[in-house]
Amino acid sequence: MRISEAETSEGGRVGSMRSGTLDQKFLLQGEHGSPNNYLLNVGLTGSGGWGTPRHRHNFDQIRYVLKGKYPASPHKIMGEGAVAYFPESVHYGPQDRPEGLEMMVIQFGGASGSGFLSTPEREAANKRLESKGTFKDGIFTWVDDKGQKHNMDGSAACFEEATGKKLVFHPARYDDVVMMEPEALAWVDTAMPGVQVKHLGTFTERNTVIRFVKVARGATFKTGTRDQIEVLFMSQGNVSVNGRSYGPKTAIELMPKDPSVDVVAEEEALFFEDRSGQVIQDD
Fold first, then answer.
1. What is the pLDDT of residues 65-122, one digit of tens each?
2. Are 214 and 196 in contact (CB under 8 A)?
3. Which of 46, 110, 212, 240 is the most buried (most CB within 10 A)?
4. What are phi and psi of 169, to 5 degrees?
5. C-alpha distances in angstroms, 235 versus 49, 81, 273?
6. How are the residues of the chain apportioned to helix, strand and coil, as percentages rounded to the nearest 5?
7. What is the pTM of this model?
8. Helices (H) and strands (E) in the chain, counts
């Protein structure tokens, strides 16, 4: 088990591959080089906003809006508390994030087995690219040794620079971003007194499960055992784990080998939960 708090986590500013200012706190990161690698971060849009052109990735993402409104594309606006699943190979954007938007994002290797680049890999590639060309409005532009000008999405350019491989997109398993409105779904009681769950969705052959867990003040959430990687993010409340207290923007990682953990709510707590199985690679 690992527990991380935003207040004390490593942070960084998204590099020049995109336009504007976006500061992130990296709460949890997975196993470097593994197809199951992931990153859970909390991002805050700075002065002047932050934007990207329309693009796609070869990994999965889930976004949870903590404060403000997030324009995943001009006609897909996520309000505060909304959740969306961004499948690999599916286009979204252009984004125009307003100043002050705060959002939790978990990015992870999708079912295709393409994996997910670690933050150090991505930022190192970004720095190398800056010496070869220029980033503007999310697009990387460079001139080859024959004098030919090229344009590429900044994120895609970073992937190819980091891996030395051509970016390949596997067939999309969904035709669009899956937007969810948790307020429209009901809370369901569990066998644990004071603990309720709200199931948002289950996706792909990785059996990626997204749900909320609400723990009433004084109640105990027993995580149980699991055969998947489980990540919990507390957006509201205060809890105690193994005698230590934690506040909002705390993240917990539980691996299949980890025993059950008792999470005791000192105040009513709201957790976002993501569970993902092992990658089943495409042929």
1. 999 999 999 889 999 999 999 999 999 999 989 999 999 999 999 999 988 988 778 7
2. yes
3. 110
4. -100, 125
5. 23, 10, 11
6. 10, 50, 40
7. 0.90
8. 2, 22
